[in-house]
Amino acid sequence: MKIDQIEFISSSPSLQLCPKEDFPEFAFIGRSNVGKSSLINMLASRKSLAKVSGTPGKTRMLNHFRVLSRIPDPASRIPDPASRIPHAASFTWFLVDLPGYGFAKLSKSQNEKFEGLIHTYLQNRETLALTFLLIDSRLEPQKNDIEFMNWLGDHEVAFVILFTKTDKLSKTLLSNNLAAYQKALSAYWEELPRFILTSAETASGRNEVLDTIGEALVQIEKGD
Fold first, then answer.
1. What is the pLDDT of residues 98-109, one digit of tens each?
2. Beta-carbon count within 10 A of 142 CB
3. Element holding 114 (H helix, E strand)
4. Is-contact 122 152, C-beta < 8 A?
5. What is the Rg, in whole angstroms, of the alpha carbon atoms belonging to the chain?
6. 3-state SS, residue 130
7. How far apart, in whole angstroms, are the C-alpha atoms of residue 87 and residue 151?
8. At how many degrees (to 10) do helices 36-44 and 206-222 cross?
9. What's the CATH class of domain 2-72+84-222?
10. Which of 49, 131, 208, 222 has the smallest CB count inside 10 Å?
11. pLDDT tens digits for 61-71?
């Protein structure tokens, strides 16, 4: 899938104030300092779409970006007359930058406020199609990451894990960290969540993330 246009629409302090347009939404969330803004900028091929801050935890609202994208049809593909999807399908959707979790410098009441905002959105936003959970590939399994994954599973929120900053460590260490996560999750999950390896620096994983969104958009268009 290719992005033709992306623009910031709004920052909402509550679910009720989110945009009213009925476009599918793809949310991005992760622990503080996971590299979410850098990854969003990489996906959009824009340097400053999402503001990158040296101070973690700056995202405090539900930030909506409207995206115009298309799925080019390979010239060699024979059109299917029964298909409801145009051969070069165009889609409009929202990329949603959610507040992170695990802000060590926030008070208990502030953390509870953001946690409530996140949970309300993820459980009640009817247009939410898929959530991308960002995990820092450099770290061993973190308790709050595992707990958040399990919360998503318990509440039947569809998600894909994006391991970030994979360019920052060796293949051996990356493999070891992934194995550690798989082991930690296997205690709770019969079927492990899907994951994609990404790097904002090298744009690794960009096509796979966008294609995942494209596949979901096609299924929504078909009514599946």
1. 988 866 565 666
2. 16
3. helix 108-124
4. yes
5. 18
6. strand
7. 38
8. 70
9. alpha beta
10. 222
11. 999 999 999 98
